[in-house]
Amino acid sequence: MYSAGDVSFSCRRIPPRRKTTAPGTIRNINGALATGSDFFGRERELLRLARILLTDSLLLTAPRRVGKSSLVLRLRDLHCDGVAEPRFRQILHDHGLLSPVQQLLPVAVYFNAEDCTSELDFAKKLVAALQQQGKFTAALQNQIGSLIRTFTEAVGLQKISLFGLDVPVGEAASTGTIRSLITSLLHNIESQPNAGTALVAVDELPEFLLILERQQNGPQRVSEFLHWLRALRQEFGQRVRWIFLGSIGLDTFVDQRSLTKTLSGLVPMSPGAWEADEAHSFPEAIGPAVGLELSADVRVAILQQVGWALPYHLQIIIQALSELKSAPLPLPGQQLMTVETADVSRAVERLLQPDGFMRFDTWRQRLKDQLTAPDHAAVMRILRRLAVVPAGLPRLQLLHELQQPDPHADPDVIAAQLSHLLAMLQRDGYLLEQHGRYAFRSFLLREFWYRREVC
Questions:
Q1: Backbone φ and ψ of 241, nearest 5°
Q2: Is residue 367, in this structure, part of any structural domain at all?
Q3: Is residue 229 domain-shared with residue 334, that is, in the same domain?
Q4: Is the pLDDT of residue 264 over 60?
Q5: DSSP alpha helices (H): ranges in 81-137?
Q6: Is there a domain that residue 394 lies in?
Q7: What is the pLDDT of residue 180?
Q8: Distance CA 347, CA 353 (A)
Q9: How confident is the model at residue 138, as a pLDDT?
């Protein structure tokens, strides 16, 4: 296995903690959304989210497993609870944001569009999410309920060959269309007294767009749908804020289809790995919850193994350590299992066995889903080459790599393809460019790629 020392990680020493514990409320979440007391850190990102949403809608772009969905759900829950979480409440107060945020976003909803297969499905999920919020006047709640019933009646539309935003819904055309019903609803939200501004967070929107694109007349419908969302943002920008996010970057999706203008007006934000202080503090906080004593040296070793402190990567290493040490579930006053620095390498080795590839394979599958066949082949050549060169390669060598299959190809075309793909791989968290060299950003992902694609 490659040494984690080929890329430095700033590691400060952490004072040791006590060796017995009472079970804490935080749990080590390995893949599910981290909500409530399981959510850790991210106060800087939450503060920035709050600042942006005072005036604008948001495009949240970040690699998978960074914790985008958990971050948005945390913001929603803070608003639903009236910003009751004491520490974040104090941070907002210290920055003069507590009162504006409370007044601005009294309604905050979140829904996942991944399983939507049509514009009708999306509209129904949007309306259902607003209905569940339950903070509107009785008249508006009745209207939302009526829309739900109308959409339910529209299941007969599944028999027609083509959906769209302007097809009739309900039993008669006079009921309206998807476009007109949603517009009417948002107009009523806007006119509701003391409604404040609604926050609508849509997760996995690009996944839905990929499904839509594969259907009859798909590219046209995707374009129309994105232009419709843009029109909604423009028309109701004073009373509705939107957050769009997903495991496939919406910015990458629209860039590949020359639809970037449909994202105009959205403020981009890219949360990355944990800040250094959070990355150091998390293993210390979570250790007692899984029955482990993680010393300062062990915590440094964990961070050196990951190289890039994605929450998920820290969580799976800690879970592997717990299994390696056969740590019992913690009880009050119970002595914690001691972990040695050598145990960290052993735990990582366990994670990277073939039966553990599924933890990382979504990174591969994502590329296959979102790229054309020529671009996918080119990306795989780049990543296979970089998997065997931990220190990375300069751009010129990667260009030569792409030219090898067809030495007579137009060099300008290959250079343009490389530029496009490197930008995507950096934006989506696969690669990092430093001092003119491109390398895997995550040591764990690089080692997985080496074992899965090269060995």
A1: -110, 145
A2: yes
A3: no
A4: yes
A5: 86-94, 98-104, 119-133
A6: yes
A7: 85
A8: 10
A9: 78
Kindly state whether residues 117 and 265 are assigned to the same domain.
Answer: yes
- Please identify which residue in the block is written with the tokens 């929450």: 311
pLDDT per residue as tens digits for the range 330-374: 666 678 888 999 999 999 999 999 998 998 998 998 898 888 999
- The helix-helix angle for 361-370 and 373-387 (nearest 10°) equals 150
Nearest-5° Cα angle at 360, 308 to 322: 75
Q: Are residues 140 and 232 in the same domain?
A: yes
Residue tagged 């491109």 (tokens): 438
Name residue 201's beta-bridge partners. Answer: 110, 243
Report whether 260 contacts 27 (CB < 8 A): no
Place of tokens 């028309």: 235
Task: Single out the residue in 317, 351, 385 at which a domain terminates.
Answer: 351
Shared domain check, 86 and 192: yes
Of 264 and 89, the structure prediction assigns the larger pLDDT to 264
Q: Are residues 55 and 137 in the same domain?
A: yes
- Domain shared by 345 and 230, yes or no: no
Nearest C-alpha neighbor of 17 from the set 304, 274, 285 = 285
Domain count, the chain: 3
Measure the CA–CA gap between 112 and 304, rounded to whole angstroms.
34
CATH of the domain at 336: 1.10.8
CATH at 406: 1.10.10.10
- Which amino acid makes up residue 152? T
Same-domain status, 180 and 250: yes
Last residue of one domain, picked from the residues 351, 377, 396: 351
pLDDT digits over 90-116, tens only? 777 788 777 776 666 567 788 999 999
Domain assignment present for residue 321? The answer is yes
Q: Are 141 and 159 in contact (CB under 8 A)?
A: no
Residues 215, 304, single domain; the answer is no
Nearest partner of 16 among 299, 438, 290, judged by Cα: 299
Beta strand pairing status for 20-21 and 334-335? antiparallel
Question: What stretches of 176-279 adopt beta strand conformation (E)?
Answer: 198-203, 240-244, 266-269
For residue 373, the enclosing domain spans 359-454
What is the three-class DSSP state of 245? Answer: coil
pTM across the whole model:
0.76
In sequence order, what are the residues at sequence separation of 6 or more whose Cβ sits closer than 8 angstroms to the Cβ of residue 190? 236, 238, 239, 240
Residue 419, pLDDT score: 95
Q: Indicate the residue type of 425.
A: L
Residue 396: which residues within 8 A CB-CB, separation 6 or more? none
Give the rounded percent of residues in the chain with a pLDDT score beyond 90. Answer: 36
Q: Which amino acid is at 54?
A: L
